[in-house]
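Hey, why these numbers?
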Amino acid sequence: MGRTSTDATTLTVRPEWAKARRIVVKIGSALLTDRATGHIKTEWLNSLMDDVAELAKAGKQVVLVSSGAVALGRHALNLPKGPLELEQSQAAAAAGQISLAHAYQELASARGLTAAQILLTLGDTEERRRYLNARNTIEVLLSLKAIPVVNENDTVATAEIRYGDNDRLSARVASMVTADCLVLLSDVDGLYTSPPNDDPNAKHIPLVTSITPDIEAMAGDAGTELSKGGMKTKIEAAKIVFAAGTDMVITSGKVPHPLRAIKEGARVTWFIANSDPVTAKKRWISGQLVPNGQVFLDAGAEKALLSGKSLLPAGVTRIEGAFDRGDAVVIRSADGRELGRGLVAYAADDARRIMGKRSSDISAILGFEGRSTLIHRDDMALARKLR
């Protein structure tokens, strides 16, 4: 069975939900749109946005990953039922994205919130520069207390590069923004030992702590016309977020206030990661990325880093290598000792121009407003810390 629990007494209200500061919520087309009319289920979406407002009021940051553009657009354009050609899907997405963005904007505004649309393709999370641009945009929006609404950019995505389901897209987004929890709103209330629609003896799995072959076998391969992702893609999403140290929960989205229901003890399946997002990210930086350069620090910068500070350009005395923004570099002391590794905020040429300079001088030197840090402490994995 792998590392699971089918014990009915297992608590579904876990401390991870209360502790989660940054939450990504995936919303599928089948939940959001009425299959008969092609319209948004306004009452349901209102209840969801009430939940989002409650979370925001509690000081949590929420990112929504929403399907629905193609489903809305195909009805608006009177496209035929059944599978669409790629060009038809792209046209439907173009028409539907306007309605989808307007709905989120209107409902967010009614609750004193600001919604912001972000369209992503697979390449935006695979290619380093685009990944950083997307991540930084979401980070700024969250810092401004906005609600980013992410959707796969179906207007330009092709069959070769598109995600094909928003379960995996939401997992990539959760990993990108170092989320504490990913919520997959589903048509079922979690993982079962077998597909519950086919097997009346299927048992609900409240807790999963590792993805084993047995867990994958439980997933089945269900899906609908509007929802490409079945439980199988949710397990794939769990693999992605586990690697990032992010917890995941599958819960029913067919009820009003589905996020509030998690807090109130609804039956769900929790996927609990073995490490937190910060630890997972630092492990990735220190052990899995090949460094493309080196930065050497003076004694003052070394002491600042080891006490938990970010690396400022003023403390850098020498730079070696050819690297781009977002690449990994080795951080070394003045005498060459490796202090750690980090993701650098500037390409090598720009970094050399600002090294030894005050952060307040960066814009005058480079001609654009850049980050005040060369390597932020959150993008750094040190060999040791100052005792």
About this structure: The chain is about 35% helix and 20% strand. The CA atoms of residues 61 and 142 lie 6 Å apart. The radius of gyration is 23 Å.
